[in-house]
Structure formats: structure tokens, C-alpha cells
Amino acid sequence: MAAAAAAAAVGGSQSPQAELPAPGLALDKAATAAHLKAALSRPDNRAGAEELQALLERVLSAERPLAAAADGEEAAAAGGGGGPGAAEEEALEWCKCLLAGGGGYDEFCAAVRAYDPAALCGLVWTANFVAYRCRTCGISPCMSLCAECFHQGDHTGHDFNMFRSQAGGACDCGDSNVMRESGFCKRHQIKSSSNIPCVPKDLLMMSEFVLPRFIFCLIQYLREGYNEPAADVPSEKDLNKVLQLLEPQISFLEDLTKMGGAMRSVLTQVLTNQQNYKDLTSGLGENACAKKSHEKYLIALKSSGLTYPEDKLVYGIQEPSAGTSTLAVQGFAGATGTLGQLDSSDEEDQDGSQGLGKRKRVKLSSNTKDQSIMDVLKHKSFLEELLFWTIKYEFPQKMVTFLLNMLPDQEYKVAFTKTFVQHYAFIMKTLKKSHESDTMSNRIVHISVQLFSNEELARQVTEECQLLDIMVTVLLYMMESCLIKSELQDEENSLHVVVNCGEALLKNNTYWPLVSDFINILSHQSVAKRFLEDHGLLVTWMNFVSFFQGMNLNKRELNEHVEFESQTYYAAFAAELEACAQPMWGLLSHCKVRETQEYTRNVVRYCLEALQDWFDAINFVDEPAPNQVTFHLPLHRYYAMFLSKAVKCQELDLDSVLPDQEMLMKLMIHPLQIQASLAEIHSNMWVRNGLQIKGQAMTYVQSHFCNSMIDPDIYLLQVCASRLDPDYFISSVFERFKVVDLLTMASQHQNTVLDAEHERSMLEGALTFLVILLSLRLHLGMSDDEILRAEMVAQLCMNDRTHSSLLDLIPENPNPKSGIIPGSYSFESVLSAVADFKAPVFEPGGSMQQGMYTPKAEVWDQEFDPVMVILRTVYRRDVQSAMDRYTAFLKQSGKFPGNPWPPYKKRTPLHPSYKGLMRLLHCKTLHIVLFTLLYKILMDHQNLSEHVLCMVLYLIELGLENSAEEESDEEASVCGPERCHDSWFPGSNLVSNMRHFINYVRVRVPETAPEVKRDSPASTSSDSLGSLQSSRRPKVLQRENSGTAQVFSLVAERRKKFQEIINRSSSEANQVVRPKTSNKWSAPGSAPQLTTAILEIKESILSLLIKLHHKLSGKQNSYYPAWLDDIEILIQPEIPKYSHGDGITAVERILLKAALQSRMNKRIIEEICRKVTPPVPPKKVTAAEKKTLDKEERRQKARERQQKLLAEFASRQKSFMETAMDVDSPENDIPMEITAAEPQISEAVYDCVICGQSGPSSEDRPTGLVVLLQASSVLGQCRDNIEPKKLPITEEEQIYPWDTCAAVHDVRLSLLQRYFKDSSCLLAVSIGWEGGVYVQTCGHTLHIDCHKSYMESLRNDQVLQGFSVDKGEFTCPLCRQFANSVLPCYPGSNVENNLWQRPSNKNIQDLIKEVEELQGRPGAFPSETNLSKEMESVMKDIKNTTQKKYRDYSKTPGSPDNDFLFMYSVARTNLELELIHRGGNLCSGGASTAGKRSCLNQLFHVLALHMRLYSIDSEYNPWRKLTQLVEEVNSQLGNEEQQPEVPILYHDVTSLLLIQILMMPQPLRKDHFTCIVKVLFTLLYTQALVALSVKCSEEDRSAWKHTGALKKNTCDAEKSHEVLLSFVISELSKGKLYHEEGTQECAMVSPIAWSSESMEKYLQDFCLPFLRITSLLQHHLFGEDLPSCQEEEEFSVLSSCLGLLPTFYQTEHPFISASCLDWPVPAFDIISQWCFEINGFTERHAEQGKALLIQESRWKLPHLLQLPENYNTIFQYYHRKTCSVCTKVPKDPAVCLVCGTFVCLKGLCCKQQSYCECVLHSQNCGAGTGIFLLINASVIIIIRGHRFCLWGSVYLDAHGEEDRDLRRGKPLYICKERYKVLEQQWISHTFDHINKRWGPHYNGL
Questions:
Q1: Which run of H or of E encompasses 1003?
Q2: Which helix (H) or strand (E) element contains residue 1382?
Q3: Three-state DSSP class for 637?
Q4: How many CA atoms lie within 13 A of 1422 on its CB side?
Q5: SS3 for 1252?
Q6: Is the pLDDT of residue 1079 over 50?
Q7: Would you say residue 966 has pLDDT above 50?
Q8: Residue 1008 and residue 748 in contact, taking contact as beta carbons nearer than 8 Å
Q9: How is residue 618 annotated by DSSP?
Q10: CA-wise closest residue to 1762 among 1293, 1290, 1296, 1286
């Protein structure tokens, strides 16, 4: 073996045996180690050191395993265990021995651990580990704790949550840099290091010698194993193989780290010692192997070093400075040449693949620093090279864990962080190339988050290692690889480059580890300050941000629908949020105080520079290119957010950071373009671009994005509007929204840029935008709490919200990682101020709601703000929803009955810096627009809507609220006629302009327009927006489209001025562009000729408003100024009556405000009202209104049709769907047509719900009931103790199933089968406690042939159904309830029962004979009719419903007795279940709750028909034994060899009842039924007496024997329980039943003496279950109602109802159960005959004799397991619990809520014959129904047969919400009501009906 050879080479200092693999080896290792340790402990230890070196050289020689590894798989295959593995193991053994220095390794570990100063936990975990985060204790947002530390600390009342680690992490307990000390757990509350003893020198001495060699050996392995991947073959396979070989070594290192602080510090020394590294790795020695490994290392470095061939020089120059490095000594300078070639090939490949040859490189700042960042790596220590290989091998989990486990060592932490930063660029390159970038990203973050969350460390590395430079440069380089030319604006000449969102780098979010590190370090103030102070860095960063400016450009498709909808917008939005916005929020969080003004100035300065560069690069002059939009303007948003911060927090003067007017005009263009595009998208103008464009519009306003996107955009526009000329701004808005042409007085117009169908919504969009712009105060003066409140109110007004969805919907300005809402305490307080909590409710239909918050009444009253709602709605329907809720509130509170308009809400006062914004409201252009629109609405022009009016009034009101006070009462002279010769309005103040009358307007209209005919008077105003171009415009780049110019007619001088401005300011460049743009704008086709007409208007805004009031109210002269009645109004204007209402209210409110603002206005309003109003023009029906009218008519017709249909259905069946579903409430409805009520009809009539015909069920065309057959084990789950079983939550608590009803019945049957004849056993019991078949119906009937064709049509229907038609499943055609079979209705009437029900006067003897005769007649199966075929097929269905094991109990398989038993047990199961549904007793009486849905009558017919095919031999018929005395007693005992029959006292009486009744021909006569019941009651009573006699003590028995014997001869001795009991005792004493008691049994007997009353109570309780079942049976067979009663009188009521009580019985004296007895033969004779059978049996089997006696029924109602209050108890126990089958911890653990079994959901390990464990368990435990709690999701899953559904959760958090998948990780508490609902559905078998979302599970759960 190679080992021996190596040893020989090293020479003789080792003991010779070491060379042989002898058994004594371990001993020798220990001896050698001890010897070496001693040698090294001497003062002069050189010899020892050499000896040790030689030994290690031999043991750890790297040649062996790699020789094997080099041969690849063959070696591994051939060598098997003896291959490389064995040698390595040997090496490890040696190392362990040497470390322990001759002692035992375990003892050594324990010794080292004793010196561990465990102040830090530092537990490292990998993905999917469950950890905790407490925001109350965390300093860093990334803080996390392991479960153990969390539970041992005190976090009561804290804001914490549990989470599943995504990338892995480490526990921060004990680290005061990351969390507050109050949160440390008991173990890590800081210990002073004084009490830890010093580590003895010799303990770790060997480690210091051995470990460097060991780590070097590991590095050699890594070097050897790495082969550069060939271009085409990904090399993960080979890498993984090497890693698998190294698994034991790395695990060994990991174990060392876990020994605690002492060992860690040794490891740190080893890893960071540069001398060691130099000596071992220089490769200078004569050892060939070392040389080879060093060469491999150099090759690997080459392949990952330099990136840019053109920079060889730089590298060459720098190199000498690093001359000290070993690498340089290594002749590295020579290598630079080769290194230079390095990545060039790789780079070009990438280019090629992109097909973008002309990708532009942005030149980075030219200092060489960047180059060195990207390309130079020099390794000086083991740690550095280890990290290098860790990256090379793409961060293997084991290595990561080892490196992280070392972090509690402070010295290591610093060294490692520096090393990590040094390799940062290399990490980025590896990540970009990686195939598994997701996994790798997670591992990188796993490491970096531990390093960079610590502020002290981050600061140190920033100062010493240029961390910020490195990060920014690396990010820049990373993005450089996917740049493309921007097509925004000027496609041909654009110089701007943007990232390509389709590139994998962006699509897969590959950049997030680096960005997330960057965000992480920016959260530290000291680091962020350095960043904000460093101008070079800011420039680079703005450069980086500009890569995203204008990405993902959308071009509007005008002709074809786009054929491929690109989904790149996800990547674009994510990139802007993560790479631009989140670092921005991080920086902003440090600019909160005045002292930080300088930072803001820096950012703003470089941001503006970058913007200017951008405008230049895209060749932007003054007009955006039409039909394109990008939602990504991060530079604009940086600028806006820093401006906002500057004014709000830093008291900077806004003007000092604003650019000149020209720049402002440019700045506003693109954000405005986005707002206009939003309106276009919502108007469906972009519909040809596919759905994704709608997706972008929604994402832009969505809660996670809005505060980084739309909010800054609107704020920037507000800033621009406040500083630019208002007329210019307003006209820009209408032009951008393309509705300029619409704003004309003429009734017809042409719009060259917009189709008519889009005009209305675009106009609405433009006005809504203006309203938002003017009313929004988010950045203009609201405090943070006010903002939070406004956001919350807006969200709550749209819909009631759960707590978590509110948290999610309210935009935070986050440090994104923290998930902390600024002041999350204020969140709770604001929430409680604005909302009420609605606790979760349950509806019987099963829909479960969560706890919701709903706005308080006063919020609706005062704070509902439609503007905020519009801004924040992602879906337009939410605005409607908010208005509907508002309307409902007003109706309910009686404030306003009609349809209200959005209320006008007072605004927060503006911050003084933004006062200029209000000038927009006081500019002529806006007033002209408002006037024009009011006029058009009054005249009913087309394309105007109520929404437009609403917004116009809103703007007028805003203007009145924000008017300048000093203008309030100007003199009338202002309005001299000469002043307003050509212009519309005299001044710019709205208050005065409102009263200004406009007489004539000149308009340009198409020749076809009605206005053309008029003559023109002299003084006119020019039309509409012609005058938008106000003459007070600064020199602006303003152009007028040739397309629109024709439409505006301007008065001559005005046009001249305007022309001048244009000519003066337009540069040549502009001239070139213009013709092109105007072509694009003008409408295709020749426009009809325009001509000028002059309109007579003679209105002012005030007069228009008053007329509108008349128009809206539909009455003339409806407006009467309020102040004329009540002068108070003017003094105290805030009037509540005006705050809510419709348009009429709004107009009144505006007029009142106008009157308040100026006396003139008040006077004019009064004047206008005095004039008789001219008639309102007849209301033309506009197209839109016509449409709505048509719609109304159509709806009306549809409604009528629906009414008809519904009426038809209603006549067919009285109660529908919901009632048919609800199990709890007793129904007083008429039972369904199954039982007809009027006696004169002779036959029952059924309605077929398919063909709609009514008629009887006949032999050849039978009708059937829609039924659902399902196997059920609910009965089997009854237990005999009241204390409910709990779900086990510790190892000790286990649930054993042997006390369940099913188990007890099973045991009994097998006991009987041991001793008695099989066929007789099968008649003595019932089965079906487990896997019994339950039949339920919705009560609807159909013809069986109709059903067949219905099934056929379902089979051919390709729609995906939730059920399987092949298995016969379908939904009821009428009520859609789930069903799987049809139960034929037996022909014949229900009324003929009346003939049978007359009490006959026959005595019981005759009836008994009749019964016997009827049973004896063989039941021939009726002739082959359709009915009989159906009966047969439904019987087959019933059998197939349950599994074979639940049907076959006979010893001889397939014996007919089996079928017999099964059939009557089906009846038993259904009766027992109905009893349970009624709560276990019949006290409530009444018609059955399931009455109208009961199918027992039909079921009985089917069963009886089949049971009569099996005749019981009259010899064996139990009826004989019950009613006759048998003479030849001894004959039975004679045949010993044959097993005896079951003694009649061991028979189950209820089973006998069903057998007797089902053996009778149907329909049964009432007196026969009563006769059977009476006979069986005697047997039952005797069984009760026997059971009682066994229960009492020997003395009691003898006492009773005597007292009873005395009364034996009295007249009604047969009806006295005392007499009968004494007789039973004396009879049974003849046998051995009471024997062998004396000793052990005595203890069990209760010491209470039995009084006569307690005996009576016992006997009644014993008989009650039988009476209940019998009464139910009678109720179903004969349709009699059940009487209701008190619990204590249940026995007497039922027995009289069953006819057991003699009619003359007096009820005065206390009721005695024995009085019901009616003995068919002398009581004492028959009892002694029954007892004789038992005595015969006890002769042989005394002990079984007692066990087989029928005991009193003690079953309680079935329940699910009781669950603990807090979900955490379940979670902590089960989520780490191992599966009993495969002993692994399952990925998806689940627990059965019926029996508590722990199962693996979907676990392949536990699969049996293709069934996964949950499905298998559902069959074994619930006969196909399983209820499982999924531990990791807190959700309950239901399995029903081959389908499953998610039911929901019964655990809710403090806010009444589910937490599916435990995403939020908040504490959850049991919701008892929900659990009750679940249990109720289980017991009533209604899962199929109530839960709607079922899917097939294909046995895979």
C-alpha cells in the first residue's frame, strides 16, 4: 500500500508497526502521539518538531487521494471502501490522536470545551431553519435568534416573529453590536471573562503544530480537484465529487470550531499566520507534489484574475510595489502576459450571444484604484486562499458553515471580513458565471449579512479596505455587462445606454446579493456619511443609477396586436426598487437633521448633473416623442426625494437647490408623460400592447412601489408647477393628455390626436390628475403620522382589511430589510383611532372570515378622501367600492339618502416653500377650461360625464379655498368693457373671474356644425384654448403643432405675440424636428373644412353653476341662496349639511363659498336668481346616456326572465341550496316530496329535476333520490370517557386507540368467533363502526334514465370538473350538491301505510306467529324490471363504497353471511349517525333535522329486497328462541365437535331488530313492527338484569335473591325488576358466571349499595340506546313525528311512542321500566332457558363468559382531538419530530386530528404501493376521510376519497387572521369556533358540500 512506501521513505523515527494496518494501530497512534507530545514539551523541541513534521508529511500526503480522484469514477468504483476514503479516514484518525496528545479524543474535546467563554451563541444555520427575530431587541434589522436562545430569553409583549430562513443565518444572542442586552438569553447574558480559567499551554500545543499541515492538506486537495470548466460542459459534477471526498475533513474542522473559544483562537492563529502559509505553500521545496499543486493554484488564479486585456500596462506598473509577495517571487511578473489574455475570450462570447456589437462602455474614473479592485488578488494566508477556493467551488454549504462558525472569534471576524472584501470583485464574477446563481446568492448573503450588519466592523472595513469604493465599482462593472442603447426619444442619435431587462442578470435578480450588502452597509450612519461626503463615489453612483433611467421602454402598438408579450417589466420594477430606490431610502434615513444639509446639496448637485447628461444623451429638446413611455426615472426620483427631505427635515431653502426654468421644464416632461400614459392605458389605448402594459401601470402605483415611484413623480411635478408659469403648465397638461381639441364651445370638433371613444376618459384623466396634483400634500407639509393616517384611511375605505394586509398595503419608507414601519407603535395607535375591529365570523355555509378592521363612522364622516383613494387604487373597481361603502354609510346613518358625490375634504396647509402651486388655480387658462366645460355640460355636449363635472367643481372649490385674500372685494370698475376686449377674463383671480360675463365666443367648427348659420356680433372672445397660450410667458421652448393650430382661432394681435414668442425661442434644431412630429400627430385622412362661427354665450361661471343646479335637480328656479333665509350662514360657514351630498349639494356649497369670499359675487348670485330663468334646453339624450338606458332596459328584461325561471324552480321544490346545506338548524319546512302529505292521493309523486316532469316511480321508469354514499369511521371514534383526548405535544403523551368504539366492537367479534359458530356470530353483532356506509341526500329526485343521459353528457363535457365522472360522481342538477349514486324510490304509495297503521286487536301470540310465517316465505327477487336492476346496481355501489376489509369478517371468505351482516349494518350505521347528528338523544323530537333529506325509507326497501334473498334456516332463526320454549334442550350439547351457536343473551338486540325487520316483506305493517319491538325488549331487559347482577357484590346478590323470591308469586311478578333480577341471579348461580370472583374482582366492584332507584336508573340507561334507534326507525318507516321531551323522561316518552307501554298505564306514580315488558311466553321459563345457554358456556370458559356479556352503552359523542391554546407548542414539538417510518425529519410534517398519528405529507420515503402516507392513513383511520393539520403551514387539509381540499386554519393571530405557511410568524391562538365548525362538518359528513375547492390528489399526499 502507498502508506507503507511513504513511511519507508520518511525513515525510521516511527514505530515499525505503524506501517502495517495491524489491529494494535490505535494503541500505537496513542503511544506515538504521547511520545511526540512529550518531545515537544521539552524546552528544546526541535527534534520533536521535525519528527512530527515527518509524520504529518507521511500521514497527510496529498498524493494518494488525488491519484485516485484523477482516475475519476473508475477508481471510486473499483476501490470501493478501500479507495481514497480509507486513507483519508486513516489520516483523520491520526490527526485526532495527535491533537489529543495520546489521550482519548472525546476527553480532549470535553477538556477544551471547559475553557469556552461562551458569551456569544453564534449558532450557524442553513436554509429552511426556523429562527426568530425580535424588533424590540434588535439594533440591526437583520438580527436573528435561534429557537433555543429565543425561548430562553424574555420577549413577552415584544414585536417578534418566527421565520423560515431563506439563505441561512447565525444566532446573534450575546452580540451587543446587533441586539440589546436585555434580549440575551440566560446562557449568554454577558459573563465577564475573568471567571474562565486560563487555557493550559500543553492542552492545545499539539493543535498548533498539526492544524497548519491539516489545513494545507485540505487546500492542496482543493487545488488538485479544480479543473477549469470546459467551455461547453458545466463542471458542477466534478466539483461536487471533490467536495464529497472532502466532506469528512471539513466536518472535522467544523467540529473543532464547536469546541469553543479556546480552539477557535488556535484556528484563527493558524488561518491568519502569514509565515506558515509562506513556508508551506510557496512550492519551492523539492517535493514534486507541492510543486504541482502550486502550479494548479497559479492556473486557477489566472483563469479568474484579470478582466480587461487593454489594461496589461496598469498591472505591470503596479506589480513591483507588491514585490514582497510570494507570488511575485514566484516569477509572477512573467505570468502577467498570460494573465492578460484571460477573460477576453469570455467577454467576446458574451457580446456575441447578445448580438449587440455596439455596446457602449462607460468609462469609469481613470484612477488605477478601480483596476486593482477588479483584478488583483494576492493571498497571504490560509484564510485568504480558503476563501478563494470557497468562491471557486461556488460556496459549498459545509465550507460556508465552517467559515461562519469561526465568527465568534473577534480577531478572526476582522481578518475574515477584510478577506471577504478583498475577494468581492471575484465573488461578483463567479456569481455572474454560475449556473446555480440562486443557491450561490443565498450562500453569499448568508456570509455577508453576518459581517456587514455590525456597524463597528463595517466602519473599520470602510476605512481600511475602501469597502464603499469596492462595492460601487463592482456593481457598476456587473451592470456593464448588460447595457444596450436606449431608444427613448431620438432612436438614431441617442448616446444613452440602459440595462437590458431581458438579460439573465436582471431577470433572475442575480445582482441582489451585492445590492443587499450595499443597502446593509448604508444603514450604518458612519458608513453612509462617508458615502455622502465622497464626491467621486456620488458621481460613480449616479452613473450607476443612470443605467436604469429609461429602461424597459414601451412603444405603443398602433396597428397589430403585439405577438409576444414581454414580461421584462417584472425585472425592471424589481431592479429599480432594489438597486436604486432602496439604497436611496437608506441614504435618506441619514439626512434627517439640519447638520446634514451638505449631504443633500451634494446628492442634488450630482443628480442634476447626471440628469443634464441624460437629456443631452437622448437629444432631448422640448417635446417628448409620442407613443412611448418608460416608467423608470430613478434620477428624477432621487432628485425629488432629496428635495423633499431638504425642505421637510433640513430646513434648506428650496430655491437654493432648484435649477433654472429651462431645466425645470425638461424635468417635468417625463413624469407628466407617465401620468398621461396611465390615463391612456386605463382608456384602453394601449390594448394592443397586451396585458403586460396594464401590469406596469398597476405595479407603478402598487403599495410596495408607490412611494418610490408615483409619489416622487407627483411631488416633482408639484415642485415644477409651483415654480413655472401656471398657464404654461396647465396648457402642457391638457396637451399631454391630448384633449386640447375637446375644450371648445362648439358642439362638434375634431381631435387630430385622439379617437372620439377615448376622449371622455382622457379628459377625466387630465382633470383627475390636476385634482391630485393640487390636493395631495404627502410631501408638501404633512407630518409622518398624518401621512400614515391618510394612507390607512384610504385603504380601509376601499375595503375592510385584515391587519397584515394593511401592514402590507401601507407604503413604508423602509430600510427594506427591516420590515419595520417607521414607528410601528404609531401604526397600532393610528389603527385604533381610525378603525374598529370586527371579530372573525362564521356562516353556516362554511365561508370563514378573518378578523377585519373597518373604518369608524367619524372617519367616513370627516376623513374619507377620494383623492387619496384614487391615487392608491391598483384596480379601478376599488374606487367604486370605496364610493359604494361611503354611500352605504350615509344611507345607514341617515346623512344622505341618494347617490352621493365624492366629498370635498379640507387639506393640510401647504408648506410655505410650495405656495406657488396654488397659482395654477388662479390662472386664466384653467378658468377658460372650467368655463368651457361647465358650458358644455350644461348644453349636453357629447363625451362629458358626471365625473368630469365632479372634478370641475372640485377644482373650482379648491380655487375658492385657496384664493388670495386681498383680492376679495375689488371694485366693479375692474370689469370695464374696454378691459376685456379680446381676452376671456380680466384678471387671474378665480373669485373675481367667476362673476365675469362672457358674451360672444368665436369658434372654428366643421362646416356641418349647427353653429355655422349665425351672424357674428362685434365684441367676441376667442375660443377656448387658443387663449391657453397666455402672453405673460417667459421665453420658453413652446411650440404649436401645425395640426392643432387650425383648430384654435386666435385674435390677431394675440396670435402675433404668440408667434413671436415661438419664433424667438425656437432654435434651428427644433425647426428640423418639428415637421416630423407634426406628421405623426395629425389625423389620417383629410379633415372636413373648418369655418369660423360666433356663439352667443352671455354667461358667467356663477350663472352656469346656478343653471347647472336647475339642471341637476330637474326643477326650474330650484336654487335659492341659503343666506337669504338664514343670515347666520355667512358668519358661521362650516355647515355640516353641505359636507355630504350629490352634485346639487356641491353646487350650493360652491356658491356659498363664492358669496362668502366677495360681496360682489353675493350680489350677482342674488341678481341671477331674481331673473326668471330661461327654460333649460330640452334634454338631448347623449350617446352615452342612450347606452346606459339600453343597458337598463336589457337588465330589466333579463331580470323578468330570471324571475320566471326562479318561480318555476320554486314550484318544483320548496327549499333550495342553502337550507339543503345547513346541518345545524332544525328545519320547519315542509319535508320534500318524498312523503306526500294529502291522504287522498294514492301514490307518491316525484319531480324529476332534469326533465321537469312529475309522476310516480314505476317498475319500468323508476325515479331515484340523488344520494352521496361515503364510507365513514366517525362512529368508531366514539370514546367512553367524557374527558376529550388531547393532541400529544410531548414524547410522553401518546394516544392509544383501544378505547374507541371501533376497537371494542372488533375485540368482541373476534372473541365470539373463537368460541361460537361463525354464521351465528355474524348475526349477533353489527359492523360498520369503521368504514360503515353513510347515505345522505339533498332531497332532489330524478328519473333514473334521465340521470344516465345526464352522466353521459358530463362524461363528454371536457370542462375540468372537481369530481370524477368515471367513478359515478356528479353534482345534483338542481342544487349542485355533490353526489355519487341514485337510490331508487320504491313504487307504491306512502299512504297505503294508513291501511296498515290501524291498530289491530290481535293478541301478541297471533302476531308472533304471523311474523314467523312472513319471515319464512322465501323472498324471490322480483322479475327483471328496470327497478330491480337499479336496486341491484345501487346495492353494488353501496358495497363498493367501502373497502373490502370493512365488509368481510367471516372466517370463510365470500360467505353469504357476510353480505347479510353488511347489509343490516348499513341500516344500523345510518340510524346511529342520525342519532349522533341529533346530539346523541331524541329529546328535541320534532320532524327529523335531516327529515326532508332522509333517505332511510328508500334505503330500507333496497336492503330488505336484498336481505330476503337469504333465508335464515328456521331452525336457527333467533325469533324462535325469543318467542318459544325449546323442548329438546340437550341435543345441542350433544354434538361437541360442532361449535355452538351464540347464546341469545350475547346477541346485540339492535342488530336483531334490524334483522327481523329487514327479513319481513315490505311495506311492513305497524302492528308487526310493534310486536317485534315488544319481543326484543324482553330480551334487552333480561340482558340489563344480567349485566346489573354481575356489577354488584356477592352480598348484594344474595340479598336481592331473597327479597325478589318473596314477591315471586304476586300478580304482576313478571313486571317487577326486583323479582326478575332475583330470578336471573338464582338461575345464573347454577353456572360459573359469578365464580372465581372472590379475590381480584372484588376491588373493581363499586362499593355503593344499589338502591331500588339507582337500579331503575341503570336499567333505563341500559335500554335507552335501543329505544332511540327503534323510535328513529319507526319515524322513518311510518312517517310518525318524534315527540320532544325532557332528558329525564326520555325513556317513558319513547316507550309509549313505540307502543311498549300499555295504553291504560297511569303516569302518576314514579315510572318503572319493567312495566313496559310484555312477555310472549311465561317470563321465568324463557329466562331460565336463556340463562341455561350461558351456564353451558361458562362451564368451559368461565372468564370469557363475563367478558362477552352485553354491557351498558357508554359511548360519548365523537370529537376531534383537543388542541393546545398556542400554536407554538404544536410547532416546536412536531416540526423537528422524526417520522416513525423513515426516521428522518419530514419536509412537510402533518398530524391527524382524529387520532393524533404523525405522518409525512407527500413524503416519498413512506410511500406504500404508490400511496403516500397521508392518503394511506386517511383510508385506515377514516375509511377515506382524513383531517390533517400541516405543521409547517398551520393549515388543515381534508382528504376525501380521491380528492382533497385546503380547509383553512383553526389557529388565528391576535388580529383574528390565519397565517398560512407561517409567513408572518406571529404567535397564533386556537379559534374554538372554527374548530367547532370543522368538527361539525366531520361528524355531519358535509365536507363535500360545504368546501368548494376540491382537486384530485393522485395518491400523492
A1: strand 998-1006
A2: strand 1381-1384
A3: helix
A4: 18
A5: coil
A6: no
A7: no
A8: yes
A9: T
A10: 1286
Cell triple for residue 1369?
360522481
Distance of CA 72 to the CA centre of its chain: 47
Which residues have a Cβ under 8 Å from the Cβ of 1017 and sit 6 or more positions away?
A: 999, 1000, 1094, 1096
Separation between Cα atoms, residue 273 and residue 901, nearest integer Å: 77
Task: List pLDDT tens digits, range 1375-1396.
Answer: 888 999 999 988 864 434 444 4
State pLDDT tens for residues 1083-1100: 333 445 667 778 888 888
DSSP letters, 1437-1493, are HHHHHS-GGGT---SSTT-HHHHHHHHHHHHHHHHHHHHHHTTSS-TT-BS-TTGGG
DSSP 1286: B
How many Å apart are CA 1355 and CA 1349, to the nearest integer?
10
**CB under 8 A, 24+ apart: contacts of 816-821:** 816/519, 816/578, 816/582, 816/585, 817/141, 817/142, 817/516, 817/519, 817/520, 817/523, 818/135, 818/141, 819/135, 819/141, 820/135, 820/141, 821/788
Q: How many Cα atoms are found within 13 Å in the side-chain-facing hemisphere of 989?
A: 19
pLDDT, position 726: 92
Residue 762: phi and psi, rounded to 5, are -70, -35
- Distance between CA atoms of 520 and 1771, rounded to whole angstroms? 32
Torsion of CA 1615, 1617, 1622, 1628, to 10 degrees: 90
Helix (H, G, I), strand (E, B) or coil at 999: strand
Helix (H, G, I), strand (E, B) or coil at 132: strand
Beta strands in 895-968 (DSSP E): none
Residues 668, 773: contact at Cβ < 8 Å?
A: no
Q: How many CB atoms lie within 10 A of CB 746?
A: 22
Task: Give the model's confidence band at 71: pLDDT under 50 very low, under 70 low, under 90 confident, else very high.
Answer: very low
Cα angle: 604, vertex 606, 609; to 5 degrees: 110
Cell numbers describing residue 742: 375637446
The number of residues in the chain equals 1901
> Who's near 504: CB < 8 A, 6+ residues apart?
510
- From residue 1821, alpha-carbon distances to 1295, 1329, 1796 in Å are 13, 12, 10
Angstrom distance (rounded) from CA 952 to CA 233: 67
Q: How far is CA 1791 from CA 248, 1298, 1796, 1842, in A?
A: 36, 19, 6, 19
Secondary structure of 1588-1639 in HEC code, one letter for each residue: HHHHCCHHHHHHHHHHHHHHHHCCCHHHCHHHHHHHHHHHHCCCCCCCCCCC
Instruction: Specify the DSSP class assigned to residue 330.
Output: I
Could you tell me which of 792, 1338, 858, 780 has the C-alpha nearest to residue 1136?
Answer: 858
Q: How far, in Å, CA of 701 to CA of 870, rounded?
A: 10
Find out whether 166 and 127 touch, Cβ atoms under 8 Å: yes
DSSP assignments along 651-673, one per residue = ---GGGG---HHHHHHHHHHHHH
| DSSP states along 1077-1136 | HHHHHSPSSPPPPEEEEEEEEEE-HHHHHHHHHHHHHTSTT----HHHH-THHHHS---G
Helix (H) or strand (E) holding 1768: helix 1767-1774
3-state secondary structure of 320: helix
Element (H, E) at 1218: helix 1217-1221
Residue 1397 scores a pLDDT above 90: no
- Looking at this protein, which amino acid is placed at residue 1151? L
CA dihedral (1438, 1439, 1443, 1449) positive or negative:
positive
Do 1449 and 1457 contact (CB within 8 A), yes or no? Answer: no
Q: What is the pLDDT of residues 461-487, one digit of tens each?
A: 999 988 999 999 999 999 988 899 888
Please say whether the beta carbons of 1735 and 1628 come within 8 A.
Answer: yes
Mean pLDDT calculated for residue range 1402-1414 = 80
pLDDT at 769 over 70: yes
Residue 1426, φ and ψ in degrees, nearest 5: -60, -40
Can you tell me the distance from the alpha carbon of 489 to that of 628, in angstroms, rounded to the nearest whole number?
A: 8
What's the number of CA atoms in the CB half-sphere (13 Å) around residue 700?
25
